[in-house]
Amino acid sequence: MKVINLGCQLTYSVMAPANFLFQISVPQNNYQSVWNEGFQTTPEYELQVCDTGLLGNRTHRVLVQPGEFTIGYQAVVELYQVSSLDTDLIEVAHADLPADVLTYLNPSRYCESDKLMKFAWDTFGYLQPGYSRVQAIADWVHNHLSYTPGSTTSTSSACDVLLQCSGVCRDYAHLCITLCRALGIPARYVTGYAVDLQPPDFHGFHEVYLSDRWYMFDATKLAPVSGFARIGAGRDAADVSFATIIGAADSMYHYVWATEGVSDNTDNRQPMPNDALSSA
Amino acid sequence: MKVINLGCQLTYSVMAPANFLFQISVPQNNYQSVWNEGFQTTPEYELQVCDTGLLGNRTHRVLVQPGEFTIGYQAVVELYQVSSLDTDLIEVAHADLPADVLTYLNPSRYCESDKLMKFAWDTFGYLQPGYSRVQAIADWVHNHLSYTPGSTTSTSSACDVLLQCSGVCRDYAHLCITLCRALGIPARYVTGYAVDLQPPDFHGFHEVYLSDRWYMFDATKLAPVSGFARIGAGRDAADVSFATIIGAADSMYHYVWATEGVSDNTDNRQPMPNDALSSA
Amino acid sequence: MKVINLGCQLTYSVMAPANFLFQISVPQNNYQSVWNEGFQTTPEYELQVCDTGLLGNRTHRVLVQPGEFTIGYQAVVELYQVSSLDTDLIEVAHADLPADVLTYLNPSRYCESDKLMKFAWDTFGYLQPGYSRVQAIADWVHNHLSYTPGSTTSTSSACDVLLQCSGVCRDYAHLCITLCRALGIPARYVTGYAVDLQPPDFHGFHEVYLSDRWYMFDATKLAPVSGFARIGAGRDAADVSFATIIGAADSMYHYVWATEGVSDNTDNRQPMPNDALSSA
Amino acid sequence: MKVINLGCQLTYSVMAPANFLFQISVPQNNYQSVWNEGFQTTPEYELQVCDTGLLGNRTHRVLVQPGEFTIGYQAVVELYQVSSLDTDLIEVAHADLPADVLTYLNPSRYCESDKLMKFAWDTFGYLQPGYSRVQAIADWVHNHLSYTPGSTTSTSSACDVLLQCSGVCRDYAHLCITLCRALGIPARYVTGYAVDLQPPDFHGFHEVYLSDRWYMFDATKLAPVSGFARIGAGRDAADVSFATIIGAADSMYHYVWATEGVSDNTDNRQPMPNDALSSA
Asked: Which of A48, A62, A103, A112 is the best residue to mutate to test the B interface, defined by the most B CB atoms within 10 Å of its own CB?
């Protein structure tokens, strides 16, 4: 079990009344427990908690008036250890997949798995199915791409990235997801906080459904997966933007942190009220 | 209130054990009641009912052995009349949209709304928001495209279709959905049965969230919207394929029907058991 | 007849021996005479004049050693007036087009006219053929796009630009060329110097073959066509890059000028030697 | 030296007066001599010979009236043997490339070399430059693609083909050309007749500039390169379509042949008049 102190502080310059949607909080679920969670805004606003459906993502919505606006979030998260018998994990036959997992086989905006069927089968079809094949896909993507901030835009898709051989964390994840889906393996995009990520920022990675649940992978290898705390999951980055702004506002500052270890106030930590939590 | 007799019969030649996913049945919900529903397969198989999540689509899954395989479905559906005060319907401010509707603002595989933001605002931004603007989008798409079977493939997206100026029903719907989302109006893809569609087939159209619920539109104008019975809804056609086949099987025959009027056995019609129904 | 003083000065930081190809000089041809042309480089290098084929573009090639490198070019150009009976210009029937013009009907890298056939015919097919239709295309592109530096990259094509509704001069030209070719009207990309362009820079525009020769158009409307001196022509921007660098070098400064009027040294102006000239 | 008998017969149904451009004849040049060449049309028309510029392609143009129209072409071609010291062929430094070859470094419609720079360098950059690297590219493309008639359309580009892993001869050539250009190696598309091609048809392949001239390669490996007679060369398939039709006409029949060996009438063969020939 690991204990992570994490949080972020985001500051905006708001020109006209703007509606913000934030996906920056960590939900409590089978993979992680959340303690001492807190939000602060300056000026003070009440945040509306939206549960955007099946995925368990907790979205916070707030209508902000012109001026400078800052939102802060912090929490202590315990990550439950996953048994390391990874090599026994299997790809599940389509007929046996849970119904709510089927949607993660469909192509999505940035993951055009329908276009890469033959590419995926030609490249990975001969490998032994299971955990090792999914890891081989992540390794292949790691070697195929160069991590290059600025080389992609918000409209770049897995096919674009495969051709240009460069990208950032979301692009690595999109390409892995696309190749998995093309092989019939459910895969989804996950955002989160990552211990030891340099420079510190929100992180994007991917989860693959194996045996009986979702497992995290990170083709960037920028930080250890064992230090990832999930924020939300979606089909691809279109679903889990950290901040969606409807209106006129510019980002000014942006701090994110995640460190391992017991925080000063862990001794008297208090569980979050249940009604503030979602489960994935 | 309209009563529709509808159904389909699909025959496949199965070469090796194949897993089928069908989205051909009509769910009971606020828009439609379903009576005397029935499935038959030859040879006889038990169909597994999957509820694929939030959308309420009912998917039927069956693992089929080699040989000829036929699935039939029929139902009597009552469509509830929608008041015709369409011109009063409003576009809902982002801050007021229900949380479960937000996902239909995101771009999806065949609806790259992130690429058409300026196009949509330049073309429709000056129009009065509300029902009339959404109808104007459907009219524009109707005029911009030529209905041309064979002009698109299963990988064609809204951007492709906008450039090539031709497509079939799914392409019309994808382009409308994309333009709506680019304007901040939630829109989704719907499949269904359509009375008076020539030639008879499954149909694809789109729904837009206005005022307080989803309203149907059909840019193809091939059949009256008042005769549409919904099968399922999704982000785009990737989510609501009529038949998904994992394995080796070819489609042989394919009949679809939908006719208005009281069927012979309406008098002694029986409601479907509740546990077989989904709600949208 | 107009007299234009024009030129440029380009400075690079060269890290390792690099081969430069410049297309910055103005060729003498039926549209323009060139006087008092001169090149200077610091340090001093001999420039190799390459005539890159059919188009008459004059390319200067030079292999540069590490260090700072500056190339300067200046000339006095007389532009021959074109009679203004533009409305009489006709689109030439395919059977009557000169053979060397046919290549400008083919799609090219940034002008995918094969993808926009129906779009072009639907939008402009009903217009009276001739000069006015070609002008209508330029006007349509002018209105459809917003001039937005930074909105496109070196890989953006006419289809990209049509969808995103923004671009810079090369994008305006590419879209016009594409729509013309799709209608069967030969069109090509031209680079040049433009009097009164703000901010001063090289310019990209397009030429269309009407009646019996090429006519210039500029959908950006940033400067009067009557003050354009041609550098080179090609299928699209891929053919007429101002500077192509093979090796490690960065651009440091970049000045371009073009002003109308008699220069101080016009009285004793000397014609360029013929062997230094190309004809288009 | 090889002697090839070759030709074709193409029949069209012409609905309205249509202008045809044919690129089906074999030019005389340094690589091949042409004897006993002949054209026939039914009904009889005079063919206009167009020399479409730098490339030496001979295009025949004819305006055809409604009705059935057949064009036939046949020739005897001697192919000059190329010395087989292929492994000595070198890639030419950019500074030393002939000026008329530079254009074949530019990206073109179906060969987006500007998009595959990093892909090409990552995959082939570590290989020894020269003939063996160009052959390695052709071998890689041969293995990466499956030859699948119907898998691509007339708008498919090298990037499309790289992603979908299938195509026909023109797609193999486009991908090879694109990868070569991305590495700075001039490459172009060539059409021709091929001995032993099954089924017999026109063929598309590619040429690469090495040492001091163009060398043929064929990534499809469907027929021996030593039996290829060139029709024309261009940047990609956009430049060398076998038949371009402006007007309303449908292809009805289409025969192509190319066989090695002395034809019956070789003994009294007559050289073609010079004015009917082009040189590449």
From this structure: A103
